[in-house]
Amino acid sequence: MLNVLNRIFITIVLLGLIVVLIPVAVTPQGVAQLAASILLQVQVDSFSVTHLIVAVVSLVGVVVCLFLIGLEWRRAAVRAVIIGGTGSGSTELHVGSISQRLRQDLEDLPQVRQVSPSISTNGRRVDVRLEVQTTADVDVPAKAVEIERLAKASLARLGLQKFKLRVKIVCVPGTNSDSAPTSGRTPTALPPGMPS
What we know:
By secondary structure, the chain is an alpha+beta fold.
């Protein structure tokens, strides 16, 4: 959408420049005299309703221009991370796949009710924030170590080497391990070499 608006705006500006530049090329003196006569006819009192209207319209125009410049130069969100490649090629992993894998692996843990991953990346490094809802009777320090260990193993299996992991545990009141829903799957095993 922004590309279409950008093209329309640039086309209008360039057509306007063409309309001005052709007469300037043919009769520069005539164009200068016409512009001077038009400017001499403009009369706006310093403190009047007309001046206020001109000022408001001008300021709105400035704000719109600054907003469009900001949109034009804003960096698009990076939605994939480079995980490797050989020679001139590279392999990228979409951040949605990272979220899905973390949710799938961590929700298999006992006493974990829900996992909400938030992934951001600059294309090379991944910042992972996990909000993990657990039952109220969970041993938080032990569960935190287990969650962190499994999350790091999941990220490593996805080929991610550079990542920052933050885990927030939320104990859901009124729940216990007996009432926690189970998915019926066995928890994902840690890969060889990972401490248990």
